[in-house]
Amino acid sequence: MSEQQTTGKRKKERHNFDYVLLTVVLFLVGFGLLMIYSTSSYEAGIDYGDSAYFLKKQMTSTLLGFIAMFFVSRVPYQFWKKWDAAAFLGSAVLILLVLSPLGLTRNGATRWLDLKIITMQPAEVAKIGAIIYEASIISKLGKSLKTPKGLAVVLVPPAILALMLWQITNNMSSAIIVMGIAVAMLFVAVPDYKYFVGLGALGIAGVTAIVFYANASDASGEFRMQRIRAWLNPEAYSTDTAFQTLQALYAIGSGGIWGKGLGQSMQKRGFLPESQNDMIFSIICEELGLFGAIAVIFLFIVLIWCCMVIANNTVDLFGALLVVGVMSHYAIQVILNIAVVTNTIPNTGISLPFISYGGTSVLFLLAEIGIVLNVSKSVRA
Q: Dihedrals φ, ψ of 373, to 5°?
């Protein structure tokens, strides 16, 4: 076989691989729209007089997301390399604007910006900003990455963004994701894993200490400590802090293997607040059972696997790190969401990518797919 034929075959395989990625994304987005309508139609009909209220809003954001994905996929990924500082500073400015008159409060939390034409959540911008910043800086540092100064340049800016998200927007889950993305990208770039073993041990020790402190002390006045206590003993907080968690567990338990059937959930009928948001996975379990839950998890595994293969076959470090950042974002958010819904970790309020209701989230998630698709054009031929 000639070299030209071999190159053509590799390119065809690459395009087939892109189709797998796009197909999975389309399935997730389409399934998300279906479940948003299923979970929100009852309360939307009561509150807004339109059972499709949330579906229509999500469809608008999804359309904008696909447009963004199309245009971003046409932008050479190397373009983003010179925008590392802008990605960090822009994310920080948007978070700070939450404190301005543009800040919008929903459900007791000020995490959005009202830009008149649209509302947006700066946390979603910070996630993609962290990916671009980390990929650019790590690829530029080279061997100096292992020095204390290099590590500081890599980890301090995302740590600042995470701290701002936590303190200004009271959004700890997004703060965890931003730092998780940074650490995951650094982990891939640095072959010496002993630093990460020590960091992981230190993190586990810190979390264990916090859990023991929350369990042993009277933390009734501290919201996050009370959430930990509710996680350890949800029945004791069944009327307040752990109410949503228990309702989600009831939904999961009642679904069985095959579920009650699409649209047949009882928990979404006023028992599980905001079921189209963070707790949508529990309604999936109730209506579609264990089978539906495994199918959704499998789709995410395929999505992450596609990203991993693209990253492994990209010709340069910057492109590979961009894909690793996107892959880390999806993986961390999926794991945290399912862990929260199943009460494996304390409730942190985190959405399920592509499926939970959230306009800004689906817009930037699809934009990240656009970056991955562009990087995939440079896989080794």
A: -65, -40
Q: Are 322 and 293 in contact (CB under 8 A)?
A: no
Task: Tell me how far apart the alpha carbons of residues 51 and 43 are, in angstroms, rounded to a whole number.
Answer: 8
> Mind listing the pLDDT tens digit for each residue in 183-198?
999 988 887 777 777 7
| CA nearest neighbour of 91 among 151, 154, 168 | 168
Give residue-wise pLDDT tens across range 217-260.
665 556 677 788 888 888 878 777 888 889 999 999 998 999 99
Instruction: Give CA separation, 265 vs 166, 293, 329, 360, 376, in Å.
Output: 34, 15, 30, 27, 40
Q: What is the mean pLDDT of residues 257-279?
A: 89
Q: pLDDT band at 3, cuts 50/70/90?
A: very low
Beta-bridge mates of residue 314: 379
**Cα(14)–Cα(380) distance, integer angstroms:** 9
Q: Where are the beta strands (DSSP E) in the chain?
A: 103-106, 109-114, 119-120
Q: How many other C-beta atoms lie within 10 A of the C-beta of residue 156? A: 11
At 205 the pLDDT is: 85
Summarised one tens digit per residue, pLDDT across range 86-124 is 999 999 999 999 998 888 887 777 888 888 777 889 999
Contacts of 146 (CB under 8 A, 6+ apart): 190, 192
Helix (H) or strand (E) holding 147: none
Contacts of 37 (CB under 8 A, 6+ apart): 51, 52, 54, 55
Name all contacts of 305-311 with Cβ < 8 Å and 24+ positions apart: 306/17, 306/20, 306/21, 306/24, 307/21, 307/372, 309/17, 310/17, 310/21, 310/372, 310/375, 310/376, 310/379, 311/188, 311/375
Q: Which two tokens stand for residue 24?
A: 């999975």
Termini Cα distance of the chain: 15
Q: Whose CA is closest to 287, among 262, 312, 310?
A: 262
Q: Give me the sign of the Cα torsion angle 351, 353, 356, 358.
A: positive
What span, in angstroms and rounded, lies between the C-alpha atoms of 234 and 238? 6
Tell me which H or E stretch contains 356. none
Does the CA dihedral 94-95-98-100 come out positive or negative? negative
